[in-house]
């Protein structure tokens, strides 16, 4: 895709639109010296080199990759106008686009026409809004989430002054259903957070089973699909459909288009199955909501000003890569295939051992050390990561995840428990190019042992 061509088209169309309103002279206070601009821009470009190569498949560290060119062009096109999707008079075009993409997301998750939702600046804010509604419905009850859930839930419970209840996990890093039920029996929990795709291991928690348990105790269920939500598109392929199909019956769901949705930061989304929860957002503004009697997006959001450009970027992307198995789903499938294949290679490796089978596109593994102990595994994992990322030639970028002694004992009892836990290597293969690069990646990591 010729990004330069489409960026030029976006600039040309913007200039054509602005010309329709007549010419005017820009204020002198906004003028800058071209030589100074060039110097400052050169400095900026030089400083931006102090980044890891998120665009390249040799980067398999954190959940980072550049946005799709369509998202860049869509975002830039709207950014030049700079609409604010808080109110219809701040961004009528992008507000409509936001409604359309939220409807697409709702359809993907199986929500009906009675849903409510909007884009947010991040998954953290999206989860905050879901827990805000949960507190409003159950003001005297707490929130339960697995100990492997994202730390945003404990943080947001603190923000909301809601009691937080971490729940133990099973041997696959998923919420333990027996532990959950014992907690629900206390009557202290009003909402259960379930994660189909944990950020450390990519483990798919059993949404359908959690939902069954929670409903027996009249608890709400919130789905944190910030990372894994888009894998709904692959349900019924090599991913069991039940957890994903159950999302349609859950009370709320969060997903981050700035992760697997190919968008620039920040673009999150929160959706509620029942639109009546919008009453908890109710507020008034003496100067904002005046151009239309329609619902303004700011009336169903804790955030006020939000970039309309985020909606435009997502809208254009979904016009080209729709939320279907053959559209955006194929992008996710490539990363999933890469993870499954690399796991197979690691199982046959003499120097590496698979920590846990990948559910999605995150692979966790560790060096086979002598002696095979937690302290040795921890040191070796750290050394491999540091050596790889600091290599002057052919660097490779990985990350680590800390695993507890109990987690190791459940998965790898042969490893001597001489420490409280150990770091293991972790690779996120969310770029589809990883599928063609995984042999090279495996060879390079193996060479660092």
Automatic annotation (TrEMBL):
Gene Ontology biological process terms in this record: carboxylic acid metabolic process
Q: Which cofactor does it need?
A: pyridoxal 5'-phosphate
Which InterPro entries does the entry mention? Answer: GrpII_AminoAcid_Decarb, PyrdxlP-dep_de-COase, PyrdxlP-dep_Trfase, PyrdxlP-dep_Trfase_major, Pyridoxal-P_BS
* PROSITE patterns found in the cross-reference section: DDC_GAD_HDC_YDC (PS00392)
Q: Which residues carry this modification: N6-(pyridoxal phosphate)lysine?
A: 259
Family to which the UniProt record says this protein belongs? Belongs to the group II decarboxylase family.
- Name of protein: Pyridoxal-dependent decarboxylase conserved domain-containing protein
Organism listed in the record:
Lentzea fradiae
């Amino acid at each position: 895709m010729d990004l330069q061509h489409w960026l030029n088209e976006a600039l040309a169309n913007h200039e054509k639109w602005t010309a329709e309103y007549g010419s005017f002279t820009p204020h002198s206070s906004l003028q800058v010296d071209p030589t100074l601009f060039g110097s400052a821009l050169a400095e900026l470009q030089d400083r931006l080199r102090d980044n890891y190569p998120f665009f390249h498949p040799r980067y398999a560290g954190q959940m980072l990759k550049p946005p799709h060119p369509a998202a860049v062009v869509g975002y830039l096109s709207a950014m030049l106008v700079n609409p604010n999707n808080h109110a219809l008079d701040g961004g009528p075009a992008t507000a409509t686009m936001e409604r359309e993409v939220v409807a697409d997301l709702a359809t993907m998750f199986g929500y009906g026409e009675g849903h409510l939702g909007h884009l947010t600046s991040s998954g953290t804010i999206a989860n905050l809004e879901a827990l805000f509604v949960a507190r409003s419905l159950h003001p005297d009850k707490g929130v339960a989430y697995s100990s492997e859930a994202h730390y945003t839930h404990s943080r947001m419970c603190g923000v909301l002054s809601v009691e937080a209840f971490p729940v133990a996990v099973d041997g696959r890093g998923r919420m333990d259903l027996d532990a959950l039920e014992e907690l629900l029996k206390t009557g202290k929990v009003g909402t259960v957070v379930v994660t189909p795709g944990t950020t450390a291991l990519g483990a798919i928690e059993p949404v359908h089973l959690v939902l069954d348990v929670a409903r027996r105790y009249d608890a709400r269920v919130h789905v944190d699909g910030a990372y894994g939500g888009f894998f709904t598109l692959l349900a019924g392929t090599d991913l069991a459909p039940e957890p994903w199909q159950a999302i349609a019956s859950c009370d709320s769901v969060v997903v981050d288009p700035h992760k697997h949705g190919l968008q620039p930061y920040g673009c999150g989304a929160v959706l509620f199955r029942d639109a009546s929860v919008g009453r908890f957002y109710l507020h008034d503004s003496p100067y904002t909501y005046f151009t239309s009697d329609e619902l303004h997006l700011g009336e169903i959001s804790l955030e006020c000003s939000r970039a309309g450009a985020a909606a435009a970027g997502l809208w254009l992307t979904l016009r080209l890569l729709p939320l279907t198995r053959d559209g955006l789903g194929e992008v996710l499938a490539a990363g999933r295939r890469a993870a499954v294949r690399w796991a197979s290679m690691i199982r046959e490796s003499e120097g590496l051992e698979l920590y846990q089978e990948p559910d999605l596109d995150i692979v966790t593994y560790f060096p086979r050390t002598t002696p095979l102990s937690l302290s040795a595994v921890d040191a070796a994992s750290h050394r491999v990561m540091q050596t790889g990322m600091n290599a002057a030639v052919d660097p490779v970028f990985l990350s680590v995840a800390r695993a507890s002694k109990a987690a190791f004992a459940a998965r790898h009892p042969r490893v001597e428990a001489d420490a409280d836990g150990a770091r293991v290597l972790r690779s996120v293969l969310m770029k589809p190019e990883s599928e063609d690069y995984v042999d090279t990646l495996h060879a390079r990591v193996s060479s660092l042992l």
